[in-house]
Amino acid sequence: MTKLRLATTHPGEPEIFHSLQGEGVSAGRPSVFVRLSGCNLACHWCDTPYTWFFTDHAGDHRGRQTFDRRDNSLTLDAAQVAQQIAAFGCRYIVFTGGEPLLQQPGLVALCEALGPDYHIEIESNATVALTPAFGGHVDQLNLSPKLVHSGNPDSARLNEAALLTYAQDQRAWFKFVIASPQDADEVAILAQRFGLSGERILLMPEGTSPAELRERSRWLGPLCLAKGWRFTDRLHIHLYGDTRGT
């Protein structure tokens, strides 16, 4: 049986939950979230460091707290995950992380166990290409290429071949985490370099508290208006705070 490595809300409890989508073009839509464990990047400001910043990790995170791998992840059969998803009775599914596309064989098995009646979204950092086997199951790609302020080297955060392919995929939306107005200049350079449609670019303020988000939104909203790009907030932070399983 194909297995998946999942993040946890508490030790031994997989982070599979029903909530409102907080970000992107699907914001506000009730969805079932499946948070996978493991990531190929190490963003300084990552709001889910418990999915990758384990005690043996050589990277860096502004919170400095490392996490025990055994307490913060667990392995389940794809069929077990499918059963938990189906129990919510919601057809909109979001695979997130971490970086979920690192586990595409397991996601294929999970989608096959679920059957065809689900709308599948992926939240990815856009460094990993879709495999043909999994790509056929995906309805929407919520991609978040990382900027310089993430702290990742260019060679890790930008996969040119993958981004050029995603730019031509009508399922793909490109959400950029913005910490300062200057970050928008970097987005414009990447959009030109990879041929990203302005209609599919979203800017989101970086922050893990409502106060941080409101402060950055004051200048980010007008910036989006001037650039002709979409603005996306972080609805779940306003509703629930920076907590797991929300």
Automatic annotation (TrEMBL):
Any one Pfam family match given in the protein's UniProt record, by short name: Radical_SAM
Binding residues annotated for S-adenosyl-L-methionine, in chain numbering: W45, C46, D47, G98, S144, P145, K146
Enzyme Commission no: 4.3.99.3
InterPro entries: 7-CO-7-deazaguanine_synth-like, Aldolase_TIM, rSAM, rSAM_sf
Cofactor needs: Mg(2+); S-adenosyl-L-methionine; [4Fe-4S] cluster
Keywords: 4Fe-4S, Iron, Iron-sulfur, Lyase, Magnesium, Metal-binding, Queuosine biosynthesis, S-adenosyl-L-methionine
Residues reported to bind substrate: L20, Q21, G22, R35, T96
Domain Radical SAM core: 26-242
Catalytic activity: 6-carboxy-5,6,7,8-tetrahydropterin + H(+) = 7-carboxy-7-carbaguanine + NH4(+)
Metabolic or biological pathway, per its Swiss-Prot or TrEMBL entry: Purine metabolism; 7-cyano-7-deazaguanine biosynthesis
Binding site for [4Fe-4S] cluster: C39, C43, C46
Main function: Catalyzes the complex heterocyclic radical-mediated conversion of 6-carboxy-5,6,7,8-tetrahydropterin (CPH4) to 7-carboxy-7-deazaguanine (CDG), a step common to the biosynthetic pathways of all 7-deazapurine-containing compounds.
Subunit-structure text: Homodimer.
PANTHER family for the chain: 7-CARBOXY-7-DEAZAGUANINE SYNTHASE (PTHR42836)
Designated name of the protein: 7-carboxy-7-deazaguanine synthase
Organism, as annotated: Blastomonas aquatica
